[in-house]
From TrEMBL:
GO terms for molecular function: structural constituent of ribosome. Keywords: Ribonucleoprotein, Ribosomal protein. Residues 79-91 have a biased composition (Basic residues). InterPro entries: Mitoribosomal_bS21, Ribosomal_bS21. Belongs to the bacterial ribosomal protein bS21 family. It comes from Rhizopogon vinicolor AM-OR11-026. Residues 1-40, 71-93 are annotated as: Disordered. GO terms for biological process: mitochondrial translational initiation. GO terms for cellular component: mitochondrial small ribosomal subunit. This is Ribosomal protein S21. It comes from the Eukaryota. It holds the Pfam family Ribosomal_S21.
Length: 121
């Protein structure tokens, strides 16, 4: 009897939902726009600046870190000369393989450390 009661309860809860008119994309957009407040960027360079708050060396290190994380130096060195289509394809394939291999090694190391924590070795 409890199965039927829970089924009836579910039917009662969802009874009115099927009869509502679906919202148009414009209405959905308007609802989402009201709930979120997005601020336009101040200028095209927003997010690309590193503010100097005292130590110039520290600001330079932060800039270098940000550039390295975004792979800007590698991109600059690659764009110094033209790269043939086949060479580019091989380089991208190699980079993809290195990423996959590093990820698999990382997963194996985590597995080994988990097993060791359990006291197997």
């Amino acid at each position: 009897m409890s199965q039927w009661a829970s089924l009836q309860e579910t039917i009662d809860r969802t009874a009115g939902t099927a009869q509502t008119k679906p919202k148009t994309p414009d209405e959905i957009w308007a609802d989402r726009s009201q709930s979120n407040t997005f601020h336009a960027p101040a200028d095209p360079f927003t997010g690309l600046r590193v503010f100097v708050t005292g130590d110039l060396g520290e600001a330079f290190r932060r800039l270098q870190t940000r550039l390295r994380r975004n792979r800007v130096p590698q991109e600059v060195s690659r764009q110094k000369r033209h790269e043939k289509k086949g060479v580019k394809r091989r380089r991208l394939s190699s980079e993809r393989w290195r990423r996959v291999f590093a990820n698999e090694v990382r997963k194996k190391v985590q597995l080994v450390s988990t097993i060791r924590r359990r006291g197997a070795y």
